[in-house]
Write a structure and sequence with these properties.
By secondary structure, the chain is an alpha/beta fold. The protein contains 14 helices and 12 strands. The chain has a domain of 238 residues: Aspartate Aminotransferase, domain 2. α3 runs parallel beside α10, α4 crosses α5 and α4 crosses α8. The relative contact order is 0.15. The N terminus and C terminus are likely disordered. The structure holds pyridoxal-5'-phosphate.
Length: 436
């Protein structure tokens, strides 16, 4: 989905444009996603703006420290203006470039693969496991060549790729690991939070629909000082000292040195101020998402659906996305289900349109649906329900009632879920160019 457009539209519908206050009326449409912003975030932004420090400064520095210590010991955090930026800085810091191949699951947002392109390296798309929709290590094994240098796994929906399997796979092939944890904050994987790992870098997103937000933003976390240092330099034009440093250090503030052609990826302080409050509220916000997921699990059981893969341990799912699948005997197609939900005023989304079905990736990498049997098949059934921590009980109940109604068979629409090669299914079908 074009994530940016989705959230902007949804958010605008949930605020009264005259008063700027959030609309709490449960009779209005239920957006697919909504940031959970309280007076505490609003006050923190106001304080930050009043302080006069609008770019990266004391709030960003404090946010980095607090975020790193929230995750574990011995970690460094580098705040950036998106997860895409963080992923880019990670692959750049690893020195990946032309001739290098990086394994990326096809079941992801385009950022995960595009950053590999930014450094001139080659993403190699890999199919996913049918349950979790996380990277399938058997398929990844088949994709290994002598050029493979790294793996970029995604913790889809907030369910972690098992860390033991990941590190075993990476070490047996001598690969660097950059974890795309855009969906995975905060979540436990084999007893430790995602982010507290031996991977080269773990990158989180604070985009407006994520489990915690700064509007736009992200964080690169690493325990390798050389990666943190390179990322800090490259996030701000390749300058050896950052702006905050320049204006607070005792050295003359006009002096700086450009050591590389860097980027403009720094996180402004008002955004970091929101992030610091969201971080403090993150356990409660995750608990709220978990309660919603549990209600969906219980109250949607028995419908012609496959419910999402469940956590393997307590706290083992961030529930950024509740991605369920329509069963073969569902009375409506996924696309019709989405329409019916919209008619009842409930926003839904699709995570993801697999990368191999997008024209750019399909055509430049010459991909065929047959090479990704799991993702190609699941795509046609998958649909995400609203799940956000500010959801009211009445909204949750209305979503559940709407799913029941949308799946009640109607005589005109009695047919099972369409196959991925049905040309009417969507513009992202597996057609003659990529059916394979
Ligand atoms: C799996 C995944 N990775 C990366 C991103 C990019 O995040 P950001 O918008 O913070 O750049 C997204 C965004 O939705 C995502 O879903």
């Amino acid at each position: 989905m074009p994530a940016t457009a989705d959230a902007t539209q949804d958010a605008s519908r949930t605020f009264d444009t005259r008063t700027g206050k959030r609309v709490k009326d449960d009779q209005s449409s239920i957006p697919f996603a909504l940031p959970d912003i309280t007076e505490a975030e609003i006050e923190a932004v106001s304080d930050s703006v009043r302080s006069g420090w609008l770019t990266t400064g004391p709030n960003s520095a404090a946010f980095e420290k607090e975020f790193a210590s929230f995750l574990g010991d011995g970690l460094e955090a580098v705040a950036v203006n998106s997860a895409t930026a963080g992923l880019h800085l990670a692959v750049e810091a690893l020195g990946l470039g032309p001739d290098d191949e990086v394994l990326v699951p096809t079941w992801t947002f385009t950022s995960t693969a595009e950053v590999v392109r930014y450094v001139g390296a080659n993403p190699v798309l890999v199919d996913v496991e049918p349950g979790s929709l996380n990277i399938d290590f058997a398929a990844a094994e088949r994709a290994i060549t002598e050029r493979t240098r790294a793996i970029l796994p995604v913790h889809f929906a907030g369910l972690p790729v098992p860390r033991g399997d990941l590190s075993k796979f990476a070490s047996s092939h001598g690969l660097e690991v950059v974890e795309d944890a855009a969906h995975a904050f905060p979540v436990i994987s084999e007893g430790r939070l995602v982010g507290d790992s031996e991977s080269a870098a773990v990158v989180f997103s604070f985009y407006a629909t994520k489990t915690m937000t700064t509007g736009e933003g992200g964080m690169l976390v690493t325990r390798r000082p050389e990666i943190a240092e390179r990322a800090r330099t490259m996030r701000l034009h390749g300058i050896s000292r950052d702006v905050f440093d320049r204006y607070t250090s005792t050295k003359p503030n006009w002096h700086y040195e450009v050591v590389a052609p860097g980027y403009k990826y720094n996180l402004p302080d008002p955004a970091a101020a929101i992030g610091r409050v969201q971080l403090r509220r993150s356990k409660d916000m995750t608990a709220a998402r978990q309660r919603i997921a549990e209600r969906y699990n219980t109250e949607l059981a028995g419908l012609p659906l496959q419910l999402p893969a469940q956590p393997r341990e307590p706290g083992g799912h961030a529930w950024h996305v509740y991605a369920m699948r329509l069963a073969d005997d569902a009375p409506v197609s996924r696309d019709r289900f989405v329409e019916r939900m919209a008619e009842m005023g409930v926003g839904t989304s699709v995570h993801f349109i697999p990368l191999h079905m997008h024209p750019y990736w399909r055509d430049t990498l010459q991909l065929k649906c047959a090479d990704f049997p799991v993702a190609s098949e699941v795509f046609n059934r998958v649909v995400s329900l609203p799940i956000f921590s500010a959801m009211t009980d009445r909204q949750i109940e209305r979503v559940i009632r709407s799913v029941h109604k949308a799946l009640a068979s109607s005589p005109q629409e009695q047919r099972s879920t369409r196959r991925p090669d049905d040309p009417e299914v969507s513009t992202f079908s597996c057609d003659e160019r990529n059916r394979g």
